Amino acid sequence: MKTILLSLSIIFMAQVTLAQNAFQKAFNSEIKSSRANVRIEFSDDTGNSAHLPISIIKGETEGPVFTIIAGIHGYEYPPIIATQDLLKEIEVENLKGTLIVVPIANVSSFFTRTPFINPQDQKNLNNVFPGKKDGTITEQLAYFITKNIISVSDVVLDVHGGDACEDLIPFVCYYNNTQKPNQTALAKKLSENSGFQYIVSYPYNISNTDPAKYAFKQAVQNGKTALSIECGKLGNVQRENVDLIKKGIYNMLATMKMYGNGSGPHNNITYKNNQTYINANVKGIFYSEYKAGDAVKKNDVVGYTTDEFGSILETYRAPKDGIILYMLATPPINIDDTVMCISSFIEN
After folding, report:
1. Tens digits of per-residue pLDDT, 77-91?
2. Architecture label for domain 275-344
3. 142 neighbors 125 (Cβ within 8 angstroms)
4. Are 70 and 102 in contact (CB under 8 A)?
5. What CATH number has the domain spanning 2-255?
6. Chain center to CA of 145
7. Whole-structure pTM over 0.85, yes or no?
8. How far, in Å, CA of 273 to CA of 298, rounded?
9. How far apart (Å, rounded) are the C-alpha atoms in residues 95 and 35?
10. Is residue 150 within 8 Å of 166, Cβ to Cβ?
């Protein structure tokens, strides 16, 4: 048995080494105006296997390394389709610097149409960063992204949308990390130049040793400029949201002087910096006449939950004035589900 376990361990370590070499070889290549597509293979000790697709696009001249990650949640389709478009549209001869593109980070979730989690190990990829080298399949994916991709990036953009049950308004967000003012200032500038109307900032309140959990928070913790796009909803593809994501990315690349001129910022930027969450305490059937983007006043009834016979179990009221940034938009509701996020702006 010890011999078998040792052999499996050697095989696993060999796979990790080969995976790292495949990515590093493509990234470290000195060939300009080039594209390299690699698949990094993973397996864990419970028999799960997966791969991570990565495209490395090198421009004609030296410049920043800009990483785009889509599909950390495989049911969030507009980011995935927008990234597919970008891979076809980017002209390497007009690119300055390097693009690292992960078109679908969670392929198991994508191909099984599973919201939020990887069905193989029941873990949420956006909740396990920095990951574990010898962990479950999802933890290994997070570890590889942290150690190999984030580590060589100047800017990390994590692109999300509303999952199967979520309605949201498009926004760009970043962490207000006062410990890294230069990186935070650039994240804010990229957000403002994205062409999105809503710019949302979150407080950064973890230490250098706390688990970051989220992909772009991991990048912030590692000292990188990082931000996220949230665009799309309800587990389907809306062409207008695909196009808005692409617009945002092209504008960010233009801001970094990497590609094109961009179309410029939105003419009515709306800032939000204070988010309050309503969570469910019961399991049942959720009702609301509201949608993402609606304005609410404090104590407004914004929804309620009934049992299977129609008896009201719980009523939800807005805890403050603000707008609904995102919300549950399908009937099933479970204990601890986020009913909605209400966002506002507080002057510093």
Report:
1. 999 999 999 999 999
2. Beta Barrel (2.40)
3. yes
4. yes
5. 3.40.630.10
6. 12
7. yes
8. 17
9. 12
10. no
